[in-house]
Specification:
This protein is an alpha+beta fold. Among the domains are: 121 residues, Nucleotidyltransferase, domain 5, CATH 3.30.420.40; 165 residues, ATPase, nucleotide binding domain (Nucleotidyltransferase, domain 5, 2-Layer Sandwich). It contains 13 helices and 17 strands. Strands 3-2-1-5 form a four-stranded mixed beta sheet, sandwiched between helices. β9 and β10 form a beta hairpin. It is globular and about 60 Å long. The termini are far apart. GO terms for molecular function: ATP binding; glycerol kinase activity. Pathway: Polyol metabolism; glycerol degradation via glycerol kinase pathway; sn-glycerol 3-phosphate from glycerol: step 1/1. Pfam families: FGGY_C, FGGY_N. Its EC number is 2.7.1.30.
């Protein structure tokens, strides 16, 4: 019997989406933006001590390979010729830090995840040395001093891990965020792997000058990157100034104001894995829909402190407003509301920085399939929320950027060539006064979450000389 013919679907582009909780690989048709196949693998985190969050870099890499392999198997079942995949883009958890051996390809320590708090004493010492009104780190990087970013994680690894110290002395250590680790490994690893990153990931290390688009001489020991002379706007209301994208060596860089939230959708996973009040993430929507209210219960998921707009590392998670009537459905509702209230805080900061109130919010991601959450978000913001019919726009964006890259050129980014994306609109259904009352109560609960952690033991007696070893021109 003759083998089935492969389907001619034109140029395809893949996208790796490597997140904190899972890895996803998707393949899109570059002409229609149609998602042809995908596979997802859930990941676990390691919590060696209170506030420490780690992941095994080899398991992360293995999850990427597994997702690619399974996705390709599904494509072959559809009789799609795999040679049509012309490029692969990577989207990743940006600040998570890895140091590995360039000769063996072995990680020298677990990946220190962006949520990790072990470097709080380092941040506090730096804050004392750098005047708040003359913060040269923020003026160069667009970032506040925080445990969130890669530089202080790297400092901890250099000070506390003997394998890292030895590898640095012997010139074997490579540092990178997750994108660098994946790309180096997937392009040959110890046998010629490419050690690189892009400006969007570099801008999250707290070592990169977002004005010159270079590794900063004062913050790191070597320069690596491309040149530019653009300027950007700094937030006065707790947001980050970051590089949004730069599509090509000779293309201009575009900046963004960003509001980073430590725990949003992950709070639902916490209800599942830590409290056990739901068995699947989808069940949170069912429980919340049953009660339709938190009944005065408020949930502040400050498990790793509060990020934008507060940047308050002493905060910790609290559930307050409990009565004997409160049950798991009310807590599930409060958890969904927490996501929405945190978004409201970011939106308010955006409005104050921009001076132009946003009249709607476009959303994407897996959580947007939760219709209760979408309606809550519209109610709490009191503006329409618009959801794309294809929620995985992070993957689509990575695929588009990869397909449009010079030398690939299979995906046109011209507006007239882009496929129309179907949208669903959620309108506010409560009065603005009710929205404001609930939001003000949330803000009161946020204040109660602060100051829970007052002291941190110093993890290092060393100074703050950043030593970065880069491989490549």
């Amino acid at each position: 019997m003759a083998a089935p013919k492969t389907t001619g679907v034109g140029p395809l582009v893949g996208a790796v989406v490597q997140g904190t909780n899972s890895t996803h690989f998707m393949v899109f048709n570059s002409k229609t933006a149609e998602l042809l196949s995908h596979h997802q693998v859930e990941l676990t985190q390691v919590f060696p001590k209170e506030g420490w969050v780690e992941q095994d870099p080899k398991l992360i890499l293995q999850s990427v390979y597994e997702c690619i392999e399974r996705t390709c198997e599904k494509l072959e079942e559809l009789h799609v010729d795999l040679s049509n995949i012309k490029a692969v883009g990577v989207s990743n958890q940006r600040e998570t830090t890895v140091v590995w051996d360039r000769l063996t390809g072995e990680p020298l320590y677990n990946a220190v995840v962006w949520l990790d708090l072990r470097t709080q004493s380092t941040v506090e010492l730096l804050s004392k040395k750098i005047p708040g009104n003359n913060n040269f780190v923020k003026s160069k990087t667009g970032l506040p001093l925080s445990t969130y970013f890669s530089a202080v994680k790297l400092r901890w690894l250099l000070d506390n891990v003997s394998q890292v110290q030895k590898a640095v002395r012997e010139g074997r250590a490579l540092f990178g965020t997750i994108d660098s680790w994946l790309i180096w490994s997937m392009t040959g690893g110890a046998h010629g792997g490419i050690h690189c990153t892009d400006v969007t990931n570099a801008s999250r290390t707290m070592l990169f000058n977002i004005h010159s688009l270079q590794w900063d001489k004062e913050l790191s020991s070597e320069i690596y990157g491309c040149l530019g002379d653009q300027s950007c706007v700094f937030s006065e209301h707790g947001l980050l100034t970051t590089v949004a994208y730069k599509l090509g060596k000779d293309q201009p860089v575009c900046y963004a104001l960003e509001g980073s939230v430590a725990i949003a959708g992950a709070v639902i996973r916490w209800l599942r894995d830590n409290l056990g009040i739901i068995k699947t993430s989808e069940e949170s929507e069912k429980l919340a829909k049953e009660v339709g209210t938190s009944y005065g219960c408020y949930f502040i998921p400050a498990f790793s402190g509060l990020y934008a707009p507060y940047w308050e590392p002493t905060a910790r998670g609290i559930i307050c407003g409990l009565t004997q009537f409160t049950n798991k459905s009310h807590i599930a509702f409060a958890a969904l509301e927490a996501i929405c209230f945190q978004t409201r805080e970011i939106l308010d900061a955006m409005n104050r920085d921009c001076g132009i109130p946003l009249n709607h919010l476009q959303v994407d991601g897996g959580m947007t399939t939760n219709k209760v959450l979408m309606q809550l978000q519209a109610d709490i913001l009191h503006i329409p929320v618009i959801r794309a019919s294809m929620p995985e726009t992070t993957a689509l964006g990575a695929a588009m950027a990869a397909g449009a890259a010079h030398g690939v050129d299979v995906w046109s980014l011209k507006p007239e060539d882009l496929s129309t994306v179907m949208m669903e609109r959620f309108e506010p259904q409560i009065k603005a006064t009710e929205s404001e009352i609930r939001y003000s109560t949330w803000k009161k609960a946020v204040m109660k979450s602060m100051g829970w952690v007052t002291t941190q033991p110093p993890e290092s007696r060393h100074g703050f000389v950043f030593v970065i070893v880069f491989n490549g021109p």
